[in-house]
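Milestone M4 deliverable, item 7.
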Amino acid sequence: MRTLTKHSTLSLAIALAFSTNSFANNNEIEEVTVVAKPTSYANSVIEQSMIEQQSSVSSVLSVIDNLPGISINEGDAFGGDDWSTTITMRGFSIDGNQQQLGMTVDGIPNGGSNYGGGAKANRYLDSENLATVEVGQGTSDIASASLEALGGTFNFVSKDPSLEKSTTFAYTNGDHDASRYYFKHETGTIFDNTQAYVSYSQTDTSRWIGDGSNGGKDNQHAEVKFVSNFDALTMTGRLSYDDVSETNYNSVSLEQFAQTPDWDQLTWNWTGTPHFDQMFAEGWGTLRENTLGYLKFEYAISPSSLLTVSPYYHKNSGRGDWIPPYLTSPVDENGNPTTEGGSNAGSYGFVDSDGNPLAPNPGCTQSLSWPWESGPGLNPACYSADATPVMSYRHTHYDKSRLGLTANYQLTLGMHDIEAGIWYEQSERDESRDWHKVIDARVYHHFDSTPYWTQYKNTFDTDTFKWYVQDSMALGDFTLNIGAKQYLVELQKYDHFNDITSDKVNSDSDVLFSAGVLYQLDSSTELFTSYSQNFAAIKDGVLERDSSTLTDIEPETAENIDFGVRYKADRLSLTATAYSIEFENRITFIAPGSDSSGIDYTIGTNGSYINVGGIESQGIELSASYMLTNEWNIYTSYTNNSSEYASDDPSSYANGELIDGAGPSFRSGDDVIDAPSDMFVLSTDYYSGDFRFGISAKYTGERLGAWTDEQTRARNEVDGYTVIDFNAGYYAEVNAGAFKSIDIAFAVTNVTDKQYLAGGTGNGSTYFIGAPRTAALTFTANF
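Output delivered:
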């Protein structure tokens, strides 16, 4: 069996994994004390109560929302839509435009968190199989395998198999047609050295906005995990499979929210008018299939050295859907009709009985005003009564495969704890976009399975290599950490239609240094400070855009500094951290100009990415957990963050002056879009015998959005809000017949039914509506 010393980074996660159900068998909250590796940077680990606050239908992302510095927003209370999911921490974001935070599962890289080909932790891990989440705020763990870890990392740790044989069945029923079936079988110890489990879940929900044909989430998920011990070698294997179909939520402006705070502008009744039906909810879809498998070999070479090697493979496929209110006229470079590549020579919304495109009646200027101005070209009133409306069903196809390996070696030599490792990955991502004709737009959105135009088809190859080394030196009451790491990243694009392979783009980092000091003031208090240089490689998505000038784009970097104190007594735990971050070379997408105020469905590979300067952030993070009695605990956290742009937006300003035709944007010293300055959490949990309940409240302060006037520098402002959640449960040992125990869990999010705007889209103009009051009841039986 593997040797775990007091310095093992795995010790805390493993202890939590085996203690996650400790409340169920005792009249008191069980406290687990683990001596873990000295950590000189700000970090957090979720408490068991944070898992219990969420329904099992909810995604694993939601459990970290109460930790300091973090804000998680999903389209609904069940995490039913990746498109509307946003995560922020210390001014860094994961949203539709930005991926600035690293994410791993059991230390295995997730392959990116972006919508187009990425996959967040909820694609790999069911909530019932979650042991804990390790969060490195700002100054991330040097060994973390991620190309996006500018502002910190999240490592989602799966439970290890149990030593005891058992079978679990759970059923959840909730608001918005939520239902979930979950099955898990634990083998117990087999072959004298192995434990394993297999689990499966089926989850269905409806969009909370609207009624009838309103879409929702349909998700099948399976996991297999085993752990085998062979003297000094421990082998762990895990395989997860996730197949999901999600209907998206739409973001809205402040004006739209003020007018109808419970409607995201998507519809649920087919009208037969394409200009309206482009907003039909079921036409906005995300389909994804993810398979991730790894083997982890942990070999205790000696009592003081441990080698860990983890090969892995990930397959991601799927598509994103939209329903443009017209057909396109694709042509090649010579102006001849084509079905592959080329460009759109024009769009049309109506045809005659022979299928020929029609122009609006001469002199007709009428326009439909919702969801935006249609103009006469898409207004039925500008055509004869026998004109037939047409529309498209646009698919963007994503396919990605990753093969990689992480290796880590830990050695204790006297006062030195030395850690060194590598990460290597080969990734191939295909992306294509095709347009299908809706068979009869007057009836429904059923489409011809053969596309009439494949707009583009590209393959992106990414090779990643990272090395790192760190020495942690114990000098009496001081622990000094010194480390270095480097990323070597190479990108290449192949355009299938033009048979062009781009030059290889190197997105290598400099050697990145980190250092930290931890001082053990006394048996209960430690002080720490740290510095690190973090890095995010240029994403392959930059190569999608033909106008991007790659020689002018630099990878994003960040310098993070933490100062903090941790206090741990019998009943009280406190953590306080002050931080300062300088984020440089931020990359953003500049869309081409458009004559339409609506969605440009034909944007294709137009537009460009550019570096738009940096961001400077300072803040404090506080958290405390106090055991009032053996049954009653109180937890609180507070975050104050100030993030400012370090330079003017180069796409809007030149030499300090607004560029002709450009709109107002950020200037040096302006507060960053969508970064709340204050967040406050207060929660309490009570356990009495087999009964438990908890209440949690989180306040998110006001956020500033886009600029609305250059002269006054006026900006959109999003109000702050408070969301209160409640949970209760009852566990009972049964031991009757096949039953061993039962558990009933009830969870309600947003108890007061607060109406608010949650995560933004990154542009400061539109936001996703926060989920309403949502309740779910789960019954679990163990056999």
